[in-house]
Amino acid sequence: MQTFFRMAVLAAPIALAACGGKDDLDELALNDTPPEVLFNEGLALRAQGKLRDSTDKFEELDKLYPYSEYSKKSLVNLAFLNYSRGKYTETVNAAKRFVTLYPGDEDSAYMLYLAGQSYFRQMPDITRDQAVTRKSAAAFNELIQRFPESEYAPDAEK
Questions:
Q1: What is the pLDDT of residues 81-93, one digit of tens each?
Q2: Do residues 76 and 98 lie in contact, with contact meaning Cβ atoms separated by under 8 Å?
Q3: Handedness of CA 81, 83, 85, 91 (dihedral sign)
Q4: Which positions ≥6 away from 22 have C-beta within 8 Å?
Q5: Which residue segments constitute the domains of the chain, with CATH numbers given?
Q6: Contact at 8 Å (CB) between 54 and 77?
Q7: Contacts of 109 (CB under 8 A, 6+ apart)
Q8: Nearest to residue 74, comparing CAs of 116, 103, 43?
Q9: Helix, strand, coil % in the chain, rounded to nearest 5
Q10: The pTM is what?
Q11: pLDDT, tens digit (0-9, with 9 covering 90-100), for 93-115
C-alpha cells in the first residue's frame, strides 16, 4: 500500500503537467515583457482610443507584476478605463483593490471618487432596492472623511 501511495505521489506532478497544453507554455514564454513596457503600451493604446486593448494591457501588467510600482499605476488606469467604458462593477473592484493595497496613497481619493461615481451611475429609480445608493454614499463619505482637502471632496459632498 505504501508503494502505491509513493507511486501516486510521484506520478501526480507528471499527470498535472500533462494537463497544461502547449498554449500555456507559449503564454508563459511570451510573458517576459518588462512592466514598464506593458505600462507604456497600455498608455499608448489609451491615447489611440483603443480602450479595450488598453484595459487588457493593464490587466496583463497587474497579473504578471502585482507588486511593482507599475501595477499600482495600472490599477488607477484600469479604474479610469472601466469607468470610461461604463463598466462600473469593474471600476469599483479596481478602486476597492487599490484603496485596500494603498490606503494612504494620494490616488486613493481619486479611487474612492470613481467608486462613488460608479455606484451613483448604477442607481435604480426610487421604487427599487437602494443598496447601490447606500454604497455610493458610503464611498463618498469615506472620501470626505479621509481626504477632506482632496480636489474630489467638494463634488463628493453634493
A1: 999 999 999 999 9
A2: yes
A3: positive
A4: none
A5: 33-85 (1.25.40), 87-158 (1.25.40.10)
A6: yes
A7: 143, 146, 147, 150, 151, 152, 153
A8: 43
A9: 75, 0, 25
A10: 0.69
A11: 999 999 999 999 999 999 999 99
